[in-house]
Each structure stands twice: as structure tokens, then as C-alpha cells.
Sequence to fold (79 residues):
Amino acid sequence: MSDFGTGGSIAQINYTLTREKGTIRGMHYQRPPHDEAKFVSCLEGVIFDVAIDIRPDSPTYLQCYGEILSAENARSNRV
Fold:
């Protein structure tokens, strides 16, 4: 697989289509050594993506960050 500027290679790519407005998708989490970087993008419509720090020893434990992603604002294209 090709390098995506993450210090590693892409092992898996998933595409999801959500037709129902207001759909909530699940939280994604893996423990080391099987942890993976997640890249979320929106090709059509709008999504609200949220990241939550659930690492108990982290200074930002339980803090969250949300971002509206859409094809128009191109925020999911930033690396």
C-alpha cells in the first residue's frame, strides 16, 4: 500500500453511505499495538465528526473536538 504522509502505509479503506439525516455512527477505538490513524472525509452532504480523548493518563482526557465536514468546505482534505 502507499504511504499517505502518516509515517506508515494504508492497510484498509472503508466507504460508507448514510441516507438518513441525523444518523449517529459508532465510536472507533483500537488499543496498541493494533491502533490505527483514522481519516474521515465527506464527499457529499455534511457530517459532524467528533474526536474524544479517552486516554486516562492524557492531560486532555475526556476533552472533545468537533468539526463540520463537507465537500464544499474541504476541511476533510487538510492533512
